[in-house]
Inverse folding.
């Protein structure tokens, strides 16, 4: 055993510096979260995805310890529940993080998962670039750093765990490429099937984008290098068949659950076509970079800070074009990748091309495919995500091309060596000028509202029976997910109504909608929350509240004691009667109210 560890250490020794830098960079990006994982929230995420993923991690840990099905739950949207397989439930990450979730809490586990996700993505790409693509350590380091800490990834690092922890992606790509090798199609096919299965439980959209891009890439490669493709296309097809044979039985039930199981839905609740990439965004600087702080934020070029999928800056864009031209003749695989990238760039523009915020009226090719299943649920701007690895590969291969300048020439005469050296230095300076402005800054965070001691101390337990529903006010929905945080703090010891998820709209043929249809009482609570006005509660509304609370199987209603909740306190008191003050919350035990007592 010791000899194996020594051998592993010997193999890693030349790469330790790269791995250490990747680790430090990952901690740097998440440093503001590490100051206080439970007390900080990522400010640049407009939808509160951090709380959603913390809830998902807590739920997976709950399922592991209670031997329950992680594909669905009745703990949210009580009593109907939620189809978690049809939401971003990151089950695979949740299983790995379960010990940390149980011991140190979901916020800690989430911050750790984001940090490891960045490091693992960088380390994975570094390994693949060195081991499988035979790049130099310098080129592999720069390429891997771009994949893990490049503009698109850093944009999604604002709480999108499923798009940040892309550890398996480089290995999936490597196994796809190895299907071509003689004698490897069976083993690589099995590995590919297993990797794709796990990735499906991290982020299905990534699997879809990989499949789509590799299909287009393979077609272009066959066009530019058919003689080579003809020699291995049979092995390639057999390997893909093996991967499908491995993944299909493993994914059959989860996918059935997703599309046909309880609370399944059709489509997404927003128009994907409205999330296009502006043409000018490809040369704009990302907000989360060093240079991005020196210019006015390009709000006209993005939909929100988490969707800056195509922000590369002029420097990197020009560098990649130059390297692509330089490598075009001798690297046919890169030529095919560049052509495939061009296709994805065109489709990322959406149904109508927009330049620097100006709608040109020119239809984009996305119109041709926007109604195709799966594509109709993919945001056009996210079709630019596969470009980041291609950009990284162009830069990495370009660096090795620069390092090789003059290597194939005869021994230089006096003075020629200095010229070649200066030429290489000039190229490396150009790479530095293109990349240094894109160095990432830590994700921006702000303080979170403290969770009431009522939940952290377990004072809620006498008010909720096993499987009962606690109604947190404000209700979880839209972008206020405080009630879900309370639930996580209580280790999911009770169910809640509504919540943050996509579910079926029973009033519209089960089309996907955000959260769930609201009953009249929920609508009233949301109205008071948003307006701060106190309505006069009628007997009809009290009777309706009794029906709605019974429909939720509610046992207690809880409102945090804050100045902002004064209107809600008055309205709920008028509706449900006088509350009881318990620690730092107002409590209405509604079991008697629901029973008509």
């Amino acid at each position: 055993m010791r000899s194996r560890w020594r051998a592993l250490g010997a193999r890693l020794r030349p790469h330790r510096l790269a791995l250490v830098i990747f680790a430090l960079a990952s901690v740097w990006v998440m440093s503001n979260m590490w100051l206080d994982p439970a007390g900080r929230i990522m400010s640049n995420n407009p939808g509160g995805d951090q709380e959603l993923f913390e809830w998902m991690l807590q739920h997976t840990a709950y399922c592991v310890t209670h031997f329950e099905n992680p594909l669905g739950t009745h703990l949210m949207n009580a009593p109907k529940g939620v189809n978690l397989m049809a939401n971003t439930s990151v089950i695979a990450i949740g299983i790995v993080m379960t010990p940390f979730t149980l011991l140190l809490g979901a916020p800690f586990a989430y911050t750790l998962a984001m940090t490891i996700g960045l490091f693992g993505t960088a380390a994975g790409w570094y390994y693949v670039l060195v081991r499988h693509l035979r790049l130099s350590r310098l080129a592999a380091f720069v390429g891997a750093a771009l994949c893990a800490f490049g503009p698109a990834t850093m944009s999604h690092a604002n709480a999108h765990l499923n798009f940040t922890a892309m550890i398996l992606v480089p290995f999936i790509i490597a196994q796809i490429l190895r299907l071509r090798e003689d004698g490897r199609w069976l083993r690589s096919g099995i590995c590919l099937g297993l990797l794709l299965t796990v990735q499906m439980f991290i982020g299905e959209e990534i699997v879809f984008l990989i499949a789509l891009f590799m299909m287009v890439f393979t077609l272009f490669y066959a066009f530019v290098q058919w003689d080579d493709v003809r020699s291995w296309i049979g092995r390639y097809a057999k390997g893909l068949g093996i991967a499908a044979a491995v993944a299909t039985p493993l994914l059959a039930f989860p996918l059935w659950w997703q599309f046909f199981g309880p609370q399944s839905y059709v489509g997404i609740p927003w128009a994907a076509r409205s999330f296009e990439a502006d043409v000018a965004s490809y040369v704009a600087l990302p907000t989360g970079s060093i240079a991005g702080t020196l210019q006015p934020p390009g709000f006209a070029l993005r939909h929100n800070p988490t969707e800056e999928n195509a922000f590369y800056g002029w420097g990197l864009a020009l560098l990649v074009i130059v390297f692509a031209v330089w490598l075009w003749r001798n690297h046919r695989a890169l030529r095919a990748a560049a052509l495939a990238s061009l296709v994805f760039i065109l489709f990322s523009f959406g149904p109508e091309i927009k330049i620097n915020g100006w709608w040109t009226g020119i239809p984009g090719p996305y119109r041709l495919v926007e109604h195709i299943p799966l594509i109709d649920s993919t945001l056009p701007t996210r079709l630019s995500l596969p470009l980041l690895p291609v950009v990284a590969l162009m830069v990495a291969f370009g660096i090795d091309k620069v390092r090789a300048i003059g290597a194939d020439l005869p021994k230089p005469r006096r003075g020629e060596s200095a010229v070649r050296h200066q030429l290489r230095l000039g190229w490396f300076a150009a790479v530095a000028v293109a990349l240094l402005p894109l160095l990432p800054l830590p994700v921006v965070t702000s303080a979170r509202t403290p969770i009431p001691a009522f939940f952290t101390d377990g004072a809620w337990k006498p008010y909720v029976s096993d499987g009962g529903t606690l109604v947190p006010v404000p209700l979880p929905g839209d972008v206020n997910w405080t009630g879900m945080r309370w639930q996580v703090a209580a280790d999911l010891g009770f169910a809640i109504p509504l919540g943050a998820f996509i579910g079926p709209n029973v009033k519209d043929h089960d089309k996907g909608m955000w959260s769930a249809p609201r009953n009249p009482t929920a609508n009233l609570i949301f109205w008071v929350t948003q307006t701060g006005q106190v309505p006069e509660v009628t007997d009809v509304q009290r009777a309706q509240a009794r029906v709605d609370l019974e429909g939720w199987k509610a046992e207690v209603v809880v409102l945090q004691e804050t100045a902002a909740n004064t209107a809600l306190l008055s309205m709920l008191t008028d509706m449900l009667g006088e509350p009881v003050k318990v620690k730092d919350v107002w409590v209405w035990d509604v079991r008697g109210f629901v029973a008509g007592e």
